[in-house]
Amino acid sequence: MLSSILLASWVFGMALASPLKRGLQAHESRAKPPGGYTLTGPAPSDTLLSLRLALVQNDAAGLVDTLYDVSIPSSTNYGGYLSKEEVEAFIAPTADSVSAVNAWLSDNGISSSTISPTGDWLLIQVPVSKADDLLDAQFSVFTHAATNKQTIRTLAYSIPTDLVGHLDLVHPTVSFPNPYGHPPVVYSPQVESTRSDYAASQCNISAITPACLQYLYSLPTTPATHGSALAVTGYVGQWPQRADLATFLGEYRADISPSTTYNLVSLNGGIDPQNGSAGIEANLDIQYTVGLATDVPVTFISVGGSSDDTDFTDELLDTALYMIGLGSPPQVMTTSYGVDEYLISEKLAYNLCGTYAQLGARGVSILFASGDGGVSGGHYPADGCTTFIPTFPSGCPYVTSVGGTINIPQTAVNFSGGGFSNYWARPSFQSVAVPAYLALYGSKPMDAGLYNASGRGIPDVAAYAVDFDVVLDGATEPVSGTSCASPTFATTIALANDALLAAGRPVLGWLNPWLYAEGWQGLTDITTGNNFACSDFTTGFEAAVGWDPVTGLGTPDYAALLRILGL
Ligand SMILES: *[C@@H]1O[C@H](CO)[C@@H](O)[C@H](O)[C@H]1NC(C)=O
Ligand SMILES: *[C@@H]1O[C@H](CO)[C@@H](O)[C@H](O)[C@H]1NC(C)=O
Ligand SMILES: *[C@@H]1O[C@H](CO)[C@@H](O)[C@H](O)[C@H]1NC(C)=O
Ligand SMILES: *[C@@H]1O[C@H](CO)[C@@H](O)[C@H](O)[C@H]1NC(C)=O
């Protein structure tokens, strides 16, 4: 007994003098660099890395159970959303986790700052040499063949054995940035629209306008004034031009004030210089939310940090943490950017997905464009094209993924992102819809082994996605992509939320359980068309009666949605 006490104090004494080299345990790894990256050399040992540390949340599973409980229409707690404090009680790391991680950092002479409301995310800065030592990593320079983009990452890292269960992940480590710079999912494919003779005069399908979408989806033009609000995210330096919005409203919404505009929130130095070099994506997203969701207050969240060494996932996290920190966040958030799922590590993907579960529990609907590469993720043939590639965050079950349509009557547009996640298994809300699709179409021989039919299917819904008129620098130009569809669907939900609030009812919150149980009856099922792959080995998936991995459950019919909601 005595000798073991002596031994213990001796070890403790050593720990004070110099960091105790703790037992390390492998935590995350990749067999090889993803899609088109190769290791081209060691990272300079003095390069400073900003590492984000996620602490294990005390009851993330409990939060998800509660999220389902308030989001399943048949639940007695349906619509009983949680307060900020109630969500934080699930998410905050335990005192044990906080002290274990802090002790490890201070033993190593590292100071940290807290970057999330509950302290589940910390930020540290360490040189490469120290990060290598601390995490038994090999931070190296990886270069992407087609774009020459260079990034410092490691193929594996470990954490101290005694931090397992306390430290969820360290980032950036094994998640890689999009080598193409995280472009928005705006796309100008050579798709030619056609329409039947009976299409109404409201629509010229070479130039989709708010009036056409109001006609197609029976969207109201009456002002929404009961407290519904909508957030639009902007990344990679994209910001909207207020003067272009005024021109757009003057041209297409003469019935509302041309001074109607958006509120700006800038995160991490996100810009809004109004100097005439606005982004087409941001202008699209703002013009088709402010211009369609009549009088719903729209907030544009301009997220900075798009320089080469930062990462899209950091921007997603910063956006979610901002929303989570609000007492009353906007009840709908739409994002027209995404990334191929395989670039992001599973742990990081799960953690980010958890931020959307937190927002869902607060009653926020999170919408993401499904992508413009059909079954081929970000449509980058240069990186090889051997399997179907699901997009992120669309694969996260707590977001609603929006695919695209074309023509009147509508059919699936062939660039509509769709397929099955490799990270999330089929969620319960898809337990009827997805097997029904697979039973009919799941056995196309040429697609065998190209996708993971046990995964969550995407998209959930769709909306028109071709040739939207967008004003940029005073001139009108056509824009296509699921980037058009997500703001359109988000607007529909924001308007429905306002009608619910007017009736004294809760907003729709996390949409998916409701959509698959009831909401589908307020959608127009799209049953024709397919999505393409980046090589000619397959035509992708077919649209079909019911849910399909091209257009989900279908496109909105606002009047029918209100009927389904009993309004
Ligand atoms: C997508 O559809 C358009 C017609 O709308 C066609 O011209 C184009 O070739 C198709 N793309 C692929 C990759 O199949
Ligand atoms: C439809 O829009 C296109 C593109 O803006 C335009 O060239 C064409 O004249 C329009 N057609 C009608 C009938 O307005
Ligand atoms: C507008 O401001 C941005 C950000 O400061 C800058 O990058 C861009 O060059 C400016 N454009 C013009 C036309 O001044
Ligand atoms: C397929 O998806 C499941 C989750 O549904 C996952 O556990 C599995 O690893 C995936 N397979 C591949 C090859 O990615």
Number of helices: 14
- Average pLDDT metric: 91
Q: At the third CATH level, what is the topology name of the largest domain?
A: Rossmann fold
Helix content: 25-40%
At the fourth level of CATH, the homologous superfamily of the largest domain is: Peptidase S8/S53 domain
How many individual β-strands? 25
Pfam families: Pro-kuma_activ
Protein name: Family S53 protease-like protein
Organism: Daedalea quercina L-15889
Signal peptide: 1-17
Q: Keyphrases for this structure?
A:
4-stranded antiparallel sheet, alpha/beta, 567 residues, 28% helix, 8-stranded mixed sheet, binds 2-acetamido-2-deoxy-beta-D-glucopyranose
Overview of the structural elements:
- The protein has helices at residues 2-17, 60-71, 84-91, 95-107, 128-135, 210-217, 242-252, 280-290, 312-324, 346-361, 433-441, 482-502, 512-517, 558-564, and strands at 24-29, 37-42, 48-55, 112-114, 121-127, 140-144, 150-153, 156-160, 167-171, 230-234, 263-267, 298-303, 332-335, 339-340, 365-369, 391-392, 400-406, 411-412, 419-425, 455-458, 461-464, 468-472, 475-479, 523-524, 555-556.
- Residues 1-19 have low confidence and may be disordered.
- The longest helix is centred in the C-terminal third of the chain and has 21 residues, at 482-502.
- By secondary structure, it is of the alpha/beta class.
- Strands 10, 11, 12, 13, 15, 17, 18 and 21 form an 8-stranded mixed sheet that branches. It has a 4-stranded antiparallel sheet with strand order 4-5-3-9.
- 53% of the residues are buried.
- A hairpin with a 2-residue loop joins strand 22 (468-472) and strand 23.
- The chain folds into 2 domains: 20-57 and 92-171; 224-564, Peptidase S8/S53 domain (Rossmann fold), CATH 3.40.50.200.
- Helices cover 28% and strands 20% of the residues.
- The chain starts with a helix and ends with a helix.
- The chain contains 14 helices and 25 strands.
- One 2-acetamido-2-deoxy-beta-D-glucopyranose is lined by residues 271, 273, 275-277.
